[in-house]
Please model this.
Amino acid sequence: MPVNSPRAHARYPYQPVLFKEYGLLVSPTLGTQRDDHPVNVEIHPALLRERFYPRSRQSIRLAREFASETLHAWGVTCRRDDLSLCVSELATNALLHGVPPGRHYRLRMLLFDATVRVEVADSGGGRPRVADRDPGAEGGRGLLLVAAVADRWGTAERRPGKVVWCEFGLGPGA
Model:
């Protein structure tokens, strides 16, 4: 049976519910029986939304709008400006340094355990890093801003390319 199948498994007669607006599998509770005791009573799966953008300067604005719509749909009200700034910076870096002509980049947002994770994947080479910049330079501060605003950030390899991600805690200690 494929993962995230909307059909019930023969051994576990649980029928998942599709969150129709975004096509996400949502299961606020999953109760299975084992020895007459419920197991996995509370399951809180990650919410995920993603979108692909072409190599175009207009895509940065569209990525910010997508992030804003996603946060609104998830009911996330805190740290929205920080999230929007990081989406803009990561998308701009992907566009300028990681997306070859004719290719695209992917923006993925996840909500799990009171944390929002933003991932931007491109097919370009190299590893992004925060570099010392000339104070008079017009650019080159994107990752510096992400590092300063996000709780955590990093990179991961991907074939082809890389993923640059950042996370924001939404809990009381954030």
